[in-house]
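Late entry, written up from scratch paper. The run itself happened at the end of the previous shift, but nothing got recorded in the book at the time, so transcribing now.
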Amino acid sequence: MKYVREKRVVVGDGYQEIDIFTRDTAQDEPIRRGKRKRKQKVTEPKQANLNEKNSKRYLVQLANGNFHEGDLFVTLTYNDDHLPSTIEEAEHHVTLFIRRVKAKRKKLGLPDLKYILVTEYQLNEDGTIRIRPHHHLLMNGMDRDTLEGLWKEKRQKLGKPDAQRIDPDLDKEHNKIEGLARYMVKAPKGKKRWSSSRNLQRPVETKNDHKYSKKKVREAAEDPAKGYVMFEKEYGDEWEIVAPIQYVMNELTGEWGAYLKMWKKKECIRS
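Output as recorded:
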């Protein structure tokens, strides 16, 4: 027997994503109508892997739920004199940089550092670096000149640092800072490794079955305007839906699914 599941992923107080898709009782036992499965943390992907679709989605969710206007998007590159010969050496440099940033923030009385770090690189067969590595960070705000001045060791500049204030109005995905997050996880010429601070708010998911019928989801997919009205009626009291809603047909079952992104309305956010 087929049934429709709503999987809701919430990050922090202001962002959520909802997947609506058809399941089969052969896959698992559906949750009884009117009951929600208890909240649980979304399984965090391996820190070193950014190749899988779910890993990329997780990082974007993490970014949207933790970083906002006024925070920073930082790129760190190397000059010829300090070009790392291995990825381990590059990660050592950026680890020391993060330590210096934490110490400086503490000295200035700023909140603890929050960050997502992505390192991009490509290796030769012998393990040496082929393409010049660089690092991207999303982090909470501070003075940009002060931050850029920390990309050095033993008073020598490691390369060119570039810290930019986040401006959601310029985001190409029209979803706060999702464009920046997707830029960080885009398909690279080489490989990418990522990590994040432990103090980020993590995605939490709940599952709810039988809230929608297969017919309702199909009608929404076939008439997106009607679908938007339906979902706006369901979530719109507290949440603002990011348009357009994405609809995908399962090629094996022929059933439609929906994927929504939403921001909590300012008046509904707890102070």
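The mean pLDDT is 87.
(Scratch paper discarded after transcription.)
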